[in-house]
Known about the structure:
- Chain A has 281 residues and is an alpha/beta fold.
- Helix content of chain A is 36%, strand content 21%.
- Chain A has a 5-stranded mixed beta sheet.
- In chain A, strand 6 (157-161), helix 5 (165-173) and strand 7 (178-182) form a beta-alpha-beta unit.
- By secondary structure, chain B is mainly alpha-helical.
- Chain B has a single domain, classed as Orthogonal Bundle (MetI-like fold), CATH 1.10.3720.10.
- Chain B is built from 12 helices and no strands.
- Classes of the chains: A alpha/beta (281), B mainly alpha (248).
- The A-B interface holds A 98-99, 101-102, 105, 121-122, 124-125, 157, 159, 162-163, 167, 178, 180-183, 187, 190-191, 194-196 and B 7, 84-85, 88-89, 98, 101-102, 109-111, 189-191, 197, 200-201, 203-205, 207, 209.
Amino acid sequence: MILVRSHRFALVALLALALLGAGCxxxxxxxxxxxxxxxxxxxxxxVNPGALTVGSDxxxxxxxxxxxxxxxxxxxDLAREIARRLELETRIQDTPFDTIFRDLAQxxxxxxxxxxxxxxxxxxxxxxxxxxxxxEQALLVEAGGEIQAVDDLAGAIVGVQDGTTGAxxxxxxTEARAVRGYxxxxxxxxxLQAGQVNAVIxxxxxxxxxxxxxxxxxxxxxxxxxxQYGIAFQEDADALREAAxxxxxxxxxxxxxxxxxxxxxxxxxxxxxxxxxxxxx
Amino acid sequence: xxxxxxxxFDLGLMVEEFGFVLDGFWETLQLSILSGVLALAWGLVLAxxxxxxxxxxxxxxxxxxxxIDAFRGVxxxxxxxxxxxxLPFVAEGLGLPRSVGIPQWxxxxxxxWYGVFAITVTYGAYMAEVYRAGIESVPGGQTEAAxxxxxxxxxxxxxxxxxxxxxRVIPPLLNDFIALMKDSSLVGVIALLExxxxxxxxxxxxxxxxxxTLGALMFLVVTIPLARLVDRLIAGQQARFQRGGxxx
Lengths: 281, 248
């Protein structure tokens, strides 16, 4: 085909249009909240001035679930409440879990609220807020199956979500024959249902939700690990983190925290969390 | 720039995790070679089915063309997800034993076999088209001469056409194999510990991406020589078709 002048022009125009279209892509952001609050943009260096951009691996019910822009969940509600007290709007950004801390450290968002456990390893790249949830892992299995306790995992194939403390637990504390890491918790549940893995180890509330939603799965046992979730911030974002800690403490004091907790977990929050604080290393 | 070097070229980490990533690459190689051989065979079968002459065999041609269209038109990732998600239940529904729905043959985990199945079924379709181009490029005179010597369609194909066709399409088939090898990393999405998954596991644990770079280097060690081989084969073919020709 001979490239006549008119063809060439059309080709260039098409290319330009395509590039323009690519550049105009929209993040899956939350709708900005109502209320004419003045943004406290000068105090913090925010990815989107006037808003708290929060990264989260959605879905992970009951902590984060739903579809953009109507995300909901314990983490989401807590993050929105904290942002509100900081006079910021909230933008939630869905992001894969196995790179979430690296992405935060690289500045893709201001904070991570994604049922993330405070660990020393993660503290090397990010700083955590005060704890906001006392967590445990759980052993999710086929209902009525052979595996009922952690010891039964010897020689079994266990599914986990990549990058989670559940994955670490299986690798370090069990005699599992093989560990299958999935990008999303859902994939692990599906594999369990299909019989491709013998058990899944994941955070207790998530496991309970999976058992409720899926036929044939049950939580065999909870696994106490003493871990606590914190909201993660960039390492040099001290002002933002401390302000968030203040807001969180206020939430716990005035009963809002208990309200949100009861809404998602149907019970009162443990005293240990109401009093817990954390100093980042 | 320093951050890029530190995040992607941390040599200390590459050395530390070399064994783990290499194990993943070995998994990739096994998956690619097995799927590649099966896809090459399956592609030839499909191409021959597509070529069957006569009105009586039109349904066979039709089904073959539909199959090839379908699997050239759907992303490999979708095929992998659908196969691994549905096979256990389909097998159960058909009353087949568990070892068919969740194959753990020869000590390889079931994602490996789902991967082999998905890749063979998809790349077979691509290769069928390559074989078809090869078959159609053999001059019609060859088939005519063969038939007039009394050979049946099958004999003409077997002894005259296909050997010539296959020789002509070795370079594009090799190219498809290189593509297959790279696409095999998609099987990581169903938790097969191939090289990209190995790199991502290290990345999640250490918050450093150098294992991914290491995986890329391992790929290059294999794919670059293969690409040069393809170049040599093409050059050899061209020499043969030009005046003077290549030494026999």
